[in-house]
Amino acid sequence: MKGTTTSWTVLGVGAGVTLLGRMLGGSLGAGVTGFGLAHVLLGALDQCRPSVRK
Questions:
Q1: Of 10, 17, 33, 37, which is least packed with CB atoms within 10 Å of its CB?
Q2: pLDDT digits (tens, 9 = 90+) for 15-42
Q3: 32: burial class by Cβ within 10 Å (0-12, 13-18, 19+)?
Q4: What whole-number distance in Å separates Cα of residue 17 and Cα of residue 19?
Q5: Domain limits of the chain?
């Protein structure tokens, strides 16, 4: 699997988990939303790595 594919997959899963957390609401939803946003951030940062951009 190419590095960019992994980055996009992590970013997409994070977006889905973020939406799920927003729909849940409450303190559990807030935790799930934060977990999803962390994955979105990590997926975006992973695309900036020099080894992935080659």
A1: 37
A2: 999 999 999 989 999 999 999 999 999 9
A3: buried
A4: 5
A5: 3-53
